[in-house]
Amino acid sequence: MIKKFFKGLKGLVTYDADREFYAKTFPDSLNRVDLMRFRKMTKADLPKVLAIEATGYQFPWTEGLFLDCLKAGHYGNWVCEDTEDKIVAFCITSIAVGEVNILNLCIAPDERKQGLGKKFMEHIIEKAKEKKAESVFLEVRPSNVGAIALYESLGFNQIGVRDGYYKKEDGTREDAIMMAYTIMNFSA
Ligand SMILES: CC(C)(COP(=O)(O)OP(=O)(O)OC[C@H]1O[C@@H](n2cnc3c(N)ncnc32)[C@H](O)[C@@H]1OP(=O)(O)O)[C@@H](O)C(=O)NCCC(=O)NCCS
Fold first, then answer.
1. Which ligand 1 atom sits nearest the alpha carbon of residue 120?
2. What's the gap between Cα 144 and its chain centre?
3. How far is the CA of 83 from the centre of ligand 1 (A)?
4. Burial class for 6, CB neighbours closer than 10 Å (0-12, 13-18, 19+)
5. Are 5 and 83 found together in one domain?
């Protein structure tokens, strides 16, 4: 009964503006990641987004690339904030008819391996469902075993390989694994 109450409360808190109140009142019932929130990225977020980006990749995106994504009307540009409104992760998606492509997902190093990547992906899948998309696609380096494990744990499947898609630091190229997630539309 108590467990059920906290579970219900947790669901509410994830979407409720009063999360800090609940965190203080029931500190043991929620973990930090449960209390993190998603909102649309703005230009003012770019310094923090670029700092996180620099920690995630050998060849980070430039500011210009992020600005292009912010200008494009068919992009979903998201940040995730902790309870102190500090940006801890971001995700860029492009949205076309029937499909969402995940172009960039990056979690701040000290927030990794705590379930935030999974929570962010679930958020993106939820948004894809709202857009009536049927599939979510992404590309990942074969060497990025952590990311591949995350995507597989959510139900993504490998659908192909793009030969020599990514640059490597030693000047050679690395393939991209293409992955897809199928959204079940039970109302159809
Ligand atoms: C890849 C990345 C997004 C994962 O985010 P995260 O918050 O650390 O992932 P989570 O804690 O939600 O992990 C969820 C599941 O993914 C898998 N996983 C995540 N990181 C892993 C790792 N380093 N090694 C093995 N499995 C891992 C596990 O199955 C994990 O479930 P478990 O904790 O129950 O075992 C994050 O490491 C990151 O931002 N990396 C740098 C940028 C990047 O590579 N982005 C992806 C580009 S395609």
1. 12
2. 16
3. 21
4. middle
5. no
pLDDT at 16 over 80: no
Residue 188 located in a structural domain? no
- Tally of domains in the chain: 2
Range 24-38 average pLDDT: 84
Domain that holds residue 144: 35-182
Vertex 78 angle, CA 77 and 79, to 5°: 140
Q: For residue 185, how far is its CA from the centre of ligand 1 (angstroms)? A: 27
Strand order in the sheet with 173-182: 37-40, 75-81, 87-96, 99-107, 135-140, 173-182, 157-167
User: pLDDT digits over 64-77, tens only?
Assistant: 999 999 999 999 99
97-120 pLDDT per residue, tens: 899 999 999 999 999 999 999 999
151 assigned to active site: yes
Put simply, whether the predicted model's pTM sits higher than 0.85 gets the answer: yes
Whether 39 is covered by a domain: the verdict is: yes
For residue 105 and ligand 1, the question of a CB distance below 6 A is answered with: yes
